[in-house]
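Worked problem 6 (solution included).
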Amino acid sequence: MRSLKVADATGGQDFSTWALTRQARIEQVLDQNLPSANIAPQQLHSAMRYSALAGGKRVRALLCYAAAEFCETHNIATDAAAAAVELIHAYSLVHDDMPCMDDDNLRRGKPSCHKQYDDATALLVGDALQSLAFEILSQPDLCLQAGEQISMLNILAKASGSTGMAGGQAIDLSAVGKPLTQTELETMHHLKTGALIQAAALLGAINGSSEQVAAVRNYALNIGLAFQVIDDILDVEAVTSTLGKTAGKDASSNKPTYVTLLGLKHAKQHAAQLYENAIAALAPFGDNARRLRELANFITQRSF
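Solution. The predicted structure is:
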């Protein structure tokens, strides 16, 4: 893996400049590590690049970079971790959009992978992106100590599996048309959305002190749930052209959401409280946690 040389002295940058720099960085890291579309099997590699590049806000990568700056994690490991979480996220979106899952034809403002290519290719794209994530994270000499690298692999594996993202999706599919309590809904989203968001932050914080890691864990737990609450709000308030995916899909699919459970007003209040909880977790660290605080604001104030 080639680590890009980007200056780390970003303290004087405003958040927008910092985020754009990191978004461009992860795009280059992904581009370098995804197979060329000219290499056989060409269609699979083309579809992998179609699904993983030039799309999304890269929130998970930004969380990884922000936590890494907070905990002074070295660049090569951070690039690998950020790429790995974005590839896992991309794979999950490809599979989520398929007819056997959420059956959505639009993702990030363009046709979903299975619509642009076909169902079989989309299935293989998800499989291949997941494998590539662990290939990148398991490469030799990524970390100064082997134990750190094993911990990183363990964090991502747990966040991706049946007690993480995949399990959350299974609960989501089985909950269609069924009433859930707020506790049940939060359990589902802690797994489906929150687990990978928390993993992104913890991977960035791999070199942190026990106090830093505990703060990042608490922060990410709250901001991961806030992310999903905002998603549910946007599904109601945003339009498809802005959202980049089919607006109103949750309601039309009779899925339980924070809006259907709490109402729009109380869902917004819940998101605001989760934001405050996330910020409070970082309070002891002052300006050293600036980027994480700014990201929390970005996540809860986003309109798409």
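Discussion: The first helix runs from residue 15 to 33.
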